[in-house]
Every structure is written in C-alpha cells, then in structure tokens.
Amino acid sequence: MIKTAPSGKELRRILDKAKELELEVDKFTREMIETTSDKKVMEITASKNFDEIEYLGVLVYGPKDVVEDLTSKLKRY
Fold first, then answer.
1. DSSP state string for the chain
2. What pLDDT, on the 0 to 100 scale, is given for residue 46?
3. Is residue 77 part of a domain?
4. Domain span holding position 62
5. pTM above 0.90, yes or no
6. How far apart are CA 45 and CA 34, in angstroms?
7. In this predicted structure, what is the pLDDT of residue 50?
8. Which parts form a coiled-coil structure per UniProt (predicted)?
9. Is 7 a domain residue?
10. How many CB atoms are located within 10 Å of the residue 31 CB?
11. What is the pLDDT of residue 24?
12. Which of 19, 36, 43, 74 is deepest in the core (most CB within 10 A)?
C-alpha cells in the first residue's frame, strides 16, 4: 500500500517509530536522486545530522496490522 506524508518531518517520525518497533525500513533521500553513486550517497548522508537529511520516502516492512497502525494517519496515494 502506498501512502503520502505531508512532510519529511512526518517521514522521520514514522522512521523513528518503525525502528522502535524493530520493523525493517528502507529510506529514500534527496541524495539518492542527486547522484548515482551509492558510495557518494553514503558519504553525504554520513556527514549530516539526522535532522538535516531530507527524506522523500520510507518503506516499512512488518506485520500488516503493525504497519497499518503506524501509518494510519497518512492518506492513501
């Protein structure tokens, strides 16, 4: 299911909560569209504080009911 978040701040909140719940996550950041080099993405991201990273998307994997609860405030795409 694809849902939209109103801001990167909301994506960070979901990311933090997913980590607390020990769910697996994949992140999509601004750096991933600015360069095709995974090495550069890692270097740029590592040089930033968590709050400085612009999240464009987050994939959350886990039990359906847990993920749905976590994303319940988001609108379906």
1. --EE-S-HHHHHHHHHHHHHTT-EEEEEETHHHH-S-HHHHHHHHHTS-GGG--EEEEEEES-HHHHHHHTTTSEE-
2. 93
3. no
4. 3-72
5. no
6. 12
7. 84
8. 11-38
9. yes
10. 18
11. 97
12. 74
Q: Alpha-carbon distance 50 to 23, whole Å?
A: 19
- Our CA dihedral for 57, 62, 68, 69, rounded to 10 degrees, sits at -110
Q: What is the dihedral of CA 69, 1, 6, 18, to 10 degrees?
A: 40
pLDDT in tens, 36-67: 899 999 999 999 998 899 999 999 999 999 99
Which tokens sit at 23? 């769910």
Residue 63 lies in a domain: yes
Please state, rounded to an integer, the average pLDDT across all residues of the chain. 93
Q: Tell me the C-alpha distance between 17 and 9, whole Å.
A: 12
